[in-house]
Automatic annotation (TrEMBL):
Protein name as catalogued: Sensor histidine kinase
Enzyme class (EC, first level): transferase
Keywords linked to the UniProt accession: Kinase, Membrane, Transferase, Transmembrane, Transmembrane helix
Domain Signal transduction histidine kinase internal region: 167-244
Membrane spanning stretches: 12-31, 43-62, 74-93, 125-146
Keyword Kinase listed: yes
EC number(s) stated in the UniProt entry for this protein: 2.7.13.3
Record has Transcription regulation as a keyword: no
Molecular function, one GO term: protein histidine kinase activity
Species: Echinicola jeungdonensis
UniProt-listed InterPro entries: Bact_2-comp_sensor_kinase (IPR050640), HATPase_C_sf (IPR036890), Sig_transdc_His_kin_internal (IPR010559)
Length: 358
């Protein structure tokens, strides 16, 4: 068992013990001591017995009745059982007090000069005892509800983390393997033309692959590393595109070093190259990245090539963006803004993404 779990369990046990000590002191010790009367030992036996019964009632309700009845929408049965058991407990306590001869002993303790005459009570039990029993059940139910909420929240977080990991794995696989093979072929061709440029490209490819394989295993990475990854990716993509494609790259030089989810920006840039270039016509890809007041702003723009409008790649783009939106929602909740404009006279696909990195 992990040390943190052991510590949490020990703290929980300690809280329960301190809670029972506090409750026992308030309801079963302080008030009788304030009477300034020599109480018979039978009274303290009754107090201890009632206290033990309340502890049993507390944990039976927490571990049996609440999970099996209340949490399963059997509210009527839960109320009937708890009220019924409380009333039965009061009758048992009244019978136990009479068996101990406590009414007569208490009368002798408070009024030693008067003769004890049994009197009929308005109720067959003490209403104060019933209130204490209901209070115990209420606290027990609240504790069970809080524990269930914590367990559900922990499970939700675990599921979210698993979903994030699976989607990150999907994102890794989303980088087309042909990109690596084609880039290697281009680098191989460069070795006969420009060895130095080929070496530089090979270095960038190795850095990109290392980032994909290792850096993304972490939950977050430094913004500077994510930007270097994007630059390397774009530089390698330049080896594959023709001169008909113009790339406008504007990345702010100095940015505040923050943490960011790895590869959260790549799908938008990757889509520019997947669906915004053509070997037959002129096309422009614009990528702008800036940071101000802890807000990262990514802007991408590319021409919408008509030949891709009904292609399988176009469908893949939609799936990729859906996946990315879901990942943004999981990781950044209300701390991001995403605007996509693909309906404009210029026939361009524009993305405006803002992420608050605080």
């Amino acid at each position: 068992m992990k040390p943190s779990l052991v510590l949490h369990k020990n703290i929980t046990v300690l809280i329960h013990i301190l809670g029972w000590i506090l409750m026992g002191t308030l309801f079963f010790l302080l008030t009788p001591l304030s009477w300034n009367v020599a109480l018979p030992h039978q009274f303290w036996v009754r107090q201890v017995t009632f206290f033990i019964l309340l502890i049993g009632l507390f944990y039976i309700n927490q571990h049996l009745w609440v999970p099996n009845l209340l949490f399963k929408s059997r509210v009527g049965w839960f109320l009937l059982l708890t009220i019924g058991v409380s009333v039965i407990l009061m009758y048992f306590l009244e019978y136990y007090e009479n068996w101990l001869g406590l009414p007569k002993l208490m009368h002798q303790a408070f009024h030693p000069e008067e003769e004890y005459i049994p009197r009929k009570k308005p109720l067959p039990f003490h209403i104060f005892n019933l209130i204490v029993a209901f209070l115990t059940l209420g606290i027990s139910t609240s504790v069970a509800a809080v524990k269930k909420w914590q367990a559900d929240e922990f499970l939700r977080q675990q599921l979210d983390q698993q979903r994030i990991k699976s989607e990150l794995s999907y994102l890794k696989a989303q980088i087309n393997p042909h990109f690596f093979f084609n880039t290697l072929n281009n680098i191989y061709s460069l070795t006969n033309i420009d060895v130095e440029r080929a070496q530089t490209a090979l270095h960038k490819l190795s850095r990109l692959m290392r980032y994909v394989l290792y850096e993304t295993e972490k939950g977050q990475t430094l913004l500077s590393r994510e930007i270097d990854f994007i630059k390397d990716y774009i530089e390698l993509m330049k080896l594959r595109i023709s001169e008909k494609v113009k790339i406008n790259l504007d990345i702010q030089e100095q940015m505040e070093e923050k943490c960011i989810a790895p590869m959260i920006l790549l799908p938008f840039i990757e889509n520019c190259f997947k669906h915004g270039i053509s070997s037959q016509q002129q096309s422009v890809i614009t990528v702008k990245l800036s940071e101000k007041d802890q807000v990262l702003h990514l802007y991408t723009c590319n021409n919408i090539i008509s030949s891709y409008s009904n292609s399988p790649e176009s469908q893949a783009k939609g799936i990729g963006l859906t996946n990315t939106k879901r990942r943004l929602s999981l990781l950044y909740a209300q701390r991001f803004q995403l605007e996509i404009d693909d309906q404009n006279p210029e026939n361009e696909y524009r993305v405006n993404l803002k992420i608050h990195l605080a």
